[in-house]
Design a protein that fits this description.
By secondary structure, the chain is α/β, with parallel strands linked by helices. The chain has helices spanning about 35-55, 165-170, 180-200, 205-215, 215-230, 275-290, 305-325, 335-340, 360-370, 380-385, 395-405, 420-435, 490-500, 505-520, 545-555, 560-565, 575-585; strands spanning about 1-10, 15-20, 25-30, 70-75, 100-110, 110-125, 125-135, 145-150, 230-235, 250-255, 260, 270, 295-300, 325-330, 345-350, 355, 385-390, 415, 440-445, 465-470, 470-480. The protein has a six-stranded antiparallel beta sheet with strand order 2-1-5-6-7-4, covered by helices on one side. The protein has a six-stranded mixed beta sheet with strand order 8-13-14-3-15-16, sandwiched between helices. Strands 18-17-19-21-20 form a five-stranded mixed beta sheet, with helices on both faces. The longest helix has 22 residues, at about 35-55.
Length: about 600
């Protein structure tokens, strides 16, 4: 995936470098005209030019040492964005010297950095594209990029389009015009996979059905659709040799085990009859789940979505990007999304400074710059009446991974990222309590530098009593250890995460991790570290800043901290974590 982009003379980017997280979802924020959409256009243009050179000039056109003359395209064939003339690609409309516009992308292949520079020139109303520098060799994969603007363009009938035509519609901002094509591609690939698994048998085995639901993009799409809209999409039979139009229907269904059944008397209908929010949501997922796309560029995908559905969309996007190894760059003005995201995944574009936020305080500054008032997600809270205040979204991701090992995460819990501490959250709770009868909230906070003696085994912080009254309840819970990452110190889980990423065998990796922790940090993880009975007075991990160890460890082995949480088994999860999760589940009953 792309880790760095250098842009020269492209629209508002005169000479800029933007470093990216090469995996997962990054939220691009900034005021109007800060360059969010322009940055996505630059990546889309780079990808388009790569395809042109390979398909129209020569198959090795992107490799190191290949230069030659540029290849010219007309304005009608240029699909990344709509512009009146090619001059509008250049900063201040000044084309200047030949091939003065360049876009360079960097990515890693097996730990080795690769780069490719695309240079552009405008001559007599034609755009000339050239390999401006590269270290690619035969066999190197260039990331495939797809740009998805806000939803528009859905028609009553949709033809089966070539890939070039689909790219053109996307460049014109008409993602809806090819939505059925994208869904049909996913469906055809899913059908082919089922036939492969069946191997002549009349039907799939139960284990094969389960595998499809967990790993097949089309089945995963329907699983998510059912979870939110209580329905699925059903493509009609399509044969390129006979059919001209692609038909995709939506149907309300019930689910028994692994089987979907149409609701009695329900008539399935074309997706065009559904609301704009559903269609916007569907188009985003169709592209994110496409196996042929590595990098997905989303320009305000939340535009037609209610705040509650925005939250669901982002949670699912993060999960799917992780599962299917996608890089998602999402530009948005939504304050709701900014509050939801972990600050380290928010890329702030401002002037010449383009970088990820370094703290929660950075989110506050961004929100102030956008100039929006804080707007709580009252509808979801009014419906469910159960709220968990956390410092950021990543805390909840840890809890969900751990919870899945021994409990079911409550579906009626509204997660509310709110960086302030317990006392400040009390004011928000009092406001909610006055509006919503019977509300129950839990405030979860890191201990940070607070003395460990002030937090007991039940995670109660001395001096803070649970607020219980007839109109609402507020529970204060504080981690006994410094931060939530303190509960990742499990050698077996770390070793399994490293082994899954790099191989080598669990036993070998376990010894290697133990040696690394001891040799680099002087740490030996005690056998009883997860137990409540672990002695806080003698256990050095209680006052250890976990990020000072987990961060370097993850970088050293090329894993993520969430990989460790996923690998932890029931018996390895800390007692503090189980205490908290059991209380959350009980609160939501």
């Amino acid at each position: 995936m792309i880790k760095k982009v250098e842009i020269k003379n492209f629209r508002s980017f005169a000479d800029d470098t933007v470093e990216l997280h090469p995996e997962g979802v990054s939220l691009l924020v900034g005021g109007n005209n800060s360059g969010k959409s322009t940055f996505l256009y630059a990546l889309s243009t780079w990808s388009y030019c790569c395809n042109v050179l390979v398909n129209e000039k020569r198959s090795d056109a992107l490799l190191a040492g290949i230069h030659g003359d540029g290849y010219g395209v007309s304005l009608s064939d240029f699909t990344p964005l709509n512009i009146p003339s090619f001059k509008h690609l250049w900063t201040n409309l000044k084309v200047g010297a030949p091939y003065s516009l360049s876009i360079t992308c960097y990515w890693d292949i097996a730990g080795v950095e690769r780069y490719l520079t695309i240079t552009l020139n405008e001559v007599q109303d034609k755009l000339f594209i050239k390999n401006g520098g590269s270290n690619l060799v035969v066999g190197d994969k260039v990331p495939t990029v797809a740009y998805l603007p806000s939803f528009a363009g859905l028609t009553a009938k949709e033809e089966w389009y070539s890939q070039a035509s689909r790219s053109k519609y996307l460049g014109q901002g008409n993602a809806g015009a090819i939505l059925r094509n994208q869904l049909m591609e996913l469906y055809k690939a899913s059908t082919a996979k089922k036939m492969e698994l069946r191997a002549g048998a009349p039907r799939l085995k139960g284990s094969q059905v389960k595998w499809m639901l967990e790993n097949d993009p089309f089945e995963k799409l329907n699983e998510v659709i059912y979870g939110i809209f209580k329905g699925i999409i059903i493509p009609e039979k399509f044969n390129e040799a006979f059919n001209t139009y692609v038909n995709i229907n939506f149907a309300k269904v019930t689910k028994t085990g692994l089987t979907y059944k149409l609701l009695p008397g329900y008539q399935k209908r074309d997706i065009m009859s559904e609301g704009s929010g559903f269609l916007q949501w569907l188009s985003v997922y169709a592209f994110v789940l496409s196996p042929s796309i590595d990098v997905i560029l989303l320009d305000e995908p939340d535009a037609h979505l209610h705040s509650t559905l925005q939250s669901v969309l982002m949670e699912d996007l993060c999960e799917l990007a992780d599962k299917f190894h996608k890089q998602v760059l999402l530009a948005s003005h939504s304050c709701e999304l900014i509050r939801m995201f972990d600050y380290s995944s928010i890329l702030h574009l401002r002037g010449k400074h383009h970088k990820y936020l370094g703290s929660e305080q950075g989110k506050t500054r961004v929100l102030s710059g956008i100039g929006s008032e804080y707007f709580p997600r009252l509808e979801a809270v009014q419906k469910n009446k159960r709220v968990l205040f956390v410092e950021n979204e990543s805390d909840v991701n840890f809890l969900k991974y751990w919870c899945s090992k021994f409990e079911t995460w409550p579906s009626n819990l509204v997660v509310w990222p709110y960086a302030n501490k317990h006392k400040e959250r009390t004011h928000l709770f009092l406001y909610l309590r006055d509006e919503i009868h019977g509300i129950k909230c839990m405030s979860l906070s890191d201990r940070d530098t607070c003395p460990k003696s002030l937090v007991d085994a039940a995670l109660h912080l001395q001096g803070l009593n649970d607020n219980i009254n007839p109109n609402g309840e507020l529970y204060y819970r504080t981690w006994r250890r410094m931060e939530i990452e303190s509960y990742l110190f499990c050698v077996d889980a770390i070793a399994r995460a490293v082994d899954e990423k790099k191989g080598g065998g669990f036993a070998v990796r376990k010894t290697e991790v133990e040696t690394y922790l001891n040799g680099t940090f002087g740490l030996v993880i005690p056998a009883n570290i997860k137990d409540t009975a672990s002695d806080a007075a003698t256990d050095p991990f209680f006052d250890l800043d976990p990020k000072s160890v987990i961060g370097p460890l993850c970088r050293h082995y090329g894993i993520k901290k969430f990989d460790i949480a996923k690998q932890m088994q029931d018996a390895e999860i800390f007692d503090d974590v189980k205490t908290l999760i059991n209380e959350i589940v009980a609160m939501c009953r």
